[in-house]
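Researcher: We plan to redesign the surface later, but first we want a full-length starting point. Tokens attached.
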């Protein structure tokens, strides 16, 4: 193998695949990145056996070949090189890659490419083509609500349900729930799958402004999903099991609907969390409907025995009764960070029942957040 490639392109490619490199495996090759020539381009691939990320970057190929080299060493080296052309040359005898860029040279010992796990192919699976930007936004509005510990593995995934021309995604950690739907083009895919939230977060991370379409492929009887972009392919194992039926916990009515400026509520929540950290992030939200003399408003407050307390008054439009309810304000901040409408609505019933957060002007996103107890 002998190739020439721009340092910035190589660094970007390594940054894309690096998150799939295994850091705990007993197989040394899984700590490596596969570097191979492929139809006049350079292919980089990494896997931890649960997810495979592969990307192709433009290069000048003089000799074909393939090798795996330690991902961290290679990535750190490339990052330190000047922005110039990088020459890579593989020695078949020593299984080492000679790296040259400007006045810098290095040799990195590798492992034979044949020891690297085979990258799964789509095998003619029927694909669902979705606008890349919209799909990225769906992921951002759902994946954050998935559980991060493996106590209940099913909750570390995101449910993806294909229903006619609708795709619905949902994630929950048992304390909050995000549900997002979108229209998709006609396809033959039906049913429900559970995709690791970490996988979807990686998909969202690698989608760039230049990507127009992402194709979802579900190879038959493989328990895998493939995400295909123009120059990137991500293959992931699916999670086995049944996702909890969340429909019954979504309130169908409310006694109070409060509409806030999204940014005002987000800023007040961030401020409250400074004082709520020591009390399980608990903050109190008090909503006043107002009267002839007093305009409607909401007050969000938090208290810390160690650091003090704060209180922020927010203008609001209130439809219904006044209410005092406590939320994990970090969860509130998380969801407000992914709402892209100027206003957001909070629908509540009582202080002990879930609150429903919806972007004003959009029916495609719903977030449920469980209340907390004032005494916590």
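Model: Full-length starting sequence:
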């Amino acid at each position: 193998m002998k190739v020439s490639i721009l340092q910035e392109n190589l660094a970007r490619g390594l940054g894309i695949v690096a998150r799939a490199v295994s850091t705990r495996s007993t197989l040394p090759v899984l700590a490596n990145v596969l570097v191979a020539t492929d139809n006049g381009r350079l292919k980089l691939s990494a896997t931890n056996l649960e997810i495979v990320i592969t990307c192709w970057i433009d290069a000048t190929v003089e000799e074909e070949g393939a090798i795996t080299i330690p991902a961290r060493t290679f990535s750190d080296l490339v990052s330190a090189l000047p922005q110039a052309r990088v020459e890579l040359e593989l020695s078949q005898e020593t299984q080492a890659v000679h790296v040259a860029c400007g006045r810098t040279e290095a040799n990195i010992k590798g492992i034979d490419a044949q020891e690297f796990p085979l990258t799964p192919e789509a095998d003619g699976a029927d694909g669902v083509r979705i606008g890349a930007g919209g799909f990225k936004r769906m992921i951002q509005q759902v994946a954050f609500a998935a559980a991060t510990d493996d106590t209940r593995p099913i909750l570390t995934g995101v449910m993806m349900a294909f229903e006619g021309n609708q795709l619905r995604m949902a994630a929950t950690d048992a304390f909050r729930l995000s549900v997002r739907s979108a229209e998709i083009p006609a396809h033959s895919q039906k049913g429900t799958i559970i995709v690791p939230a970490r996988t979807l977060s990686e998909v969202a991370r690698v989608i760039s402004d230049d990507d127009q379409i992402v194709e979802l492929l579900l190879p038959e009887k493989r328990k895998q999903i493939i995400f295909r972009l123009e120059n990137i392919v991500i293959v992931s194992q699916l999670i086995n099991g049944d996702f909890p039926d969340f429909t019954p916990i979504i309130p169908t009515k409310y006694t109070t609907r409060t509409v806030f400026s999204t940014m005002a509520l987000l800023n007040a929540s961030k401020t409250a969390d400074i004082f709520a950290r020591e009390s399980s992030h608990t903050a109190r939200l008090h909503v006043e409907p107002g009267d002839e003399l007093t305009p409607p408003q909401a007050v969000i407050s938090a208290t810390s025995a160690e650091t003090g307390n704060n209180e922020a008054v927010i203008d609001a439009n209130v439809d219904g009764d006044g209410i005092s309810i406590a939320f994990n304000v970090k969860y509130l901040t998380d969801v407000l960070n992914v709402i892209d409408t100027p206003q957001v609505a909070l629908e509540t019933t009582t202080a002990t029942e879930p609150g429903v957060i919806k972007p004003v002007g959009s029916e495609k996103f719903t977030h449920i957040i469980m209340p907390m107890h004032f005494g916590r």
